[in-house]
## 1
Amino acid sequence: MKLNIKNIVALISLAIIGLIVVQVIWINNAIDVRKSQFDQEVKNSLVVVTQNVPKVIQQNQETKFFQRQKQMNNGVADFNAIIDAMLDNTPFKKFSDKISKEQLDSLIKKEMLKRGINTPYVFSVFDKSGSPLFTQDSLTKSFNDKLLSEGINIPVYAGDFMLTQPFISIIFPKKNNFIFKKMWLILSISLLLILAVIYAFYYTVNTIHKQKQLSEIKNDFINNMTHELKTPISTIQLACEALNDSDMNSKESQDTFVEMIKDENSRLKGLVDTVLKTAILDKGQMKLQKEELDLLTILNKVKDNFSLQIQQLNGSITIQNELPEMKFEGDSQHITNVFQNLVDNAIKYSSHSPEIKIITAQTIDAYLIRVMDNGIGISRENIDKIFEKLYRVPTGDLHNVKGFGLGLNYVKSIVELHNGNISVKSTKDKGSTFTISLPIK
């Protein structure tokens, strides 16, 4: 089954979308796994914390015992101290009186850092009914509901089995940021891969589109070239046959046919030279024979060359110049060809009598030459393509416009080789203005 370009693009698009979807799913799964690992590390840390809580409580009780013993020895012990001493080792003693929030925080922070968890957290200890056992600060109070609903919970089992059975609950407000920081490398690589795939898709489709356009342009070029070459070849053949005809032996007839052969041969040479010049430009092998020129002299020469042809079409060509001279360093032949191409196009792409104006001006560092015509103009969708090699603007009702689509590409190349630039403004059916800027010597 033969696939056209649309089908190929559709298949590539489906493949790319599938790859991106798989990559996104993989990233989500990787993040979920990382979150599960994080939660498990937190639980492991809290388990160790609960194992160390009894040790801290015991140390606190021993400290209190020695303090009370000292007070009793000094005869200053009061009734409350005696009651506290009696309750120290009983389940009736409140958990918050056995260990401080600061001590519990120190234990948690120590275990978290051991496992590389250095993101801010909020914790509290609740009894079986969900009431906080510590005197809460304003920050912790605002998180109480979230601690009970979303927090990671671990029972403390600090000797309070008969009554409260307290549990530690902890949450990490910046958990996602912490996980993304840990995964930034793999996430960045995944994102780069996705962008690379999208760019590869764009580049592939763009290349296919350009290749298709190039194929069409080359086919048009071959057709145009075949047509252009067949005409002078046919004319030369007819002239040669006429010269061999005994009825055409007069000197006048022979001179006519010889001149015809000479003209058609020159035309063939011009066609071949055009193609060869373009090939040389493409290879970057064009060597300019630069010399000091006067652009005004070249423009007047171009005007004189086309004057007779334009008069036959009942048109006009004028030069508007107020500059005393336009000294320029460049290749005389190629600069002349540039302006001849523009004037020739202005004549060919005119649906009625051509009116051509060549206007000169000067800026601080450049000469400006504008070639204006009243031709058929260039549509907006074609104006960005006219300097491309082998591209020919559709001529509508004009069927006598010949060429290979190489002229304006040649013009642009020669102007740029002289460190200048060319631009165009055009309105459909109202004409075009080509502006060439060439640096002052």
## 2
Amino acid sequence: MTLTTGLIVAGSLLALLGLAMLGWCIWRALAIRRAGETEDTTAQMQTLVAVNMAAVGIASIGLGCVVVGFIL
């Protein structure tokens, strides 16, 4: 396997992982909203925002690897 193929494959896997995490974040946020306003809602949403930002970061790194793999 060449470097470019490895970058494209690894980047694709990272991008898919990030998208799956984003889907999970959406699903979890809807579940929290359906549960209604409780004392714990704000803390759960703040934790979810951190996970969401990590998912966006992982997806961005994956897409960056794919682009670099194509350029090389």
## 3
Amino acid sequence: MLTIPSFSTLGLAEPLLRALADKNYTEPSPIQAQAIPHLLDGRDLLGCAQTGTGKTAAFALPILHRLSKHPPVRMARRPGVLVLTPTRELAAQIGESFAHYGKYLPFRHTVIFGGVGQNPQVRALREGVDIVVATPGRLLDLAEQGCIDLSGVGVFVLDEADRMLDMGFAPDVKRVMARLPERRQSLLFSATMPGPILEIANRLLHDPVKVEVVPASSTADKVVQHVCHVDRGDKPDLLAHTIHSHAGGLVLVFSRTKHGANKLVKKLGQNRIAASAIHGNKSQTARERALEDFRSGKVRVLVATDIAARGIDVKGVSLVINYDLPNEPESYVHRIGRTARAGADGLAIAFCDPDERVYLRDIERLIRIDVPVMSDHPYALATPNLHQLGGGGSKGRGGSAGRGGPRRSGSAPVRDMGGMASNNAPNRPRNRFRSSRRAGGR
């Protein structure tokens, strides 16, 4: 009989167990159960887990346990723990986790990111903090100004490493690593493990334990996936149609560009759908306000670009819509991971225009699933055979192969999106791709 561990059996300090009990957390998630014992022993760790699996607690709890057992001598501008993460939202979320789990411990932490004035951050560092959670750009700015000294870091966490690379932070990550002391405990977490991540891991980690709770290319088990083939020009109307047809829960929409996200918010408003946008051109205050309005349900629809994807941890997201398919298939996994969190069910619908069909083919190769086609909507195109598409043209551009099927009437019957008919069988593994290279051989 399989024994399910509890937090009380992992050897965590009593103040942490009390904080976990306050949140009714009794059983660790798989990555927490596997990672925490090794981290308590001081081992370096390479963790592979998709978003929403509880990896923040997997590293936050051992760090706080270490501080409780060996209180550091607090020094101005010289933190003992550094957590590096790609986005402001994710940095703020990790900071909140440390505050929740460490509520009964006398430690200090601060969160450092751009888009806001640096004076409060500099002041916190001058007064002395034990833990710093930071994004790379602002951290390096403060380091170059002499506001923070990383030579005393005893624990370093590189979180969402694959997203760091996607966002072009690899040089900054290496500059941060160069400022760290040789003797330290290092942790690297990533949802996927492409070659560049393993290269960084080899430089960063010493004799690491590897913890992998799910294959890097898998999508959340409880996410029901569909794809709608649609003309590019019909996407705005299909978006409004889909949201109106999906009666309950919060809706997260992914746009490829910041300008596109703003246009979608305006278009949804014209269809009497309240929406906000969150992307890199928004001020931190505007991003926090949009996220809070979404979290509280004041705004039901949030339109986001990938830069904000990893920092959106909101309960109640029942539908994720990929308005634009990502040209990197790993991003699809991260996006739909915003729903079906903490054991809940979720629905993910992708809009695919003819020029995006190669992106869809790459996604299906990565996740090894034929995404069922949803054709019961007013803007459906004929279903193409993705595997007969050529690779002509620029990278990721599929031309218009398979285009031009008959449109359904605008009065086509609509059922709840969670139970719409599709012309494919339910998601199931596709044997012929099991040995193929990920992402279409990229």
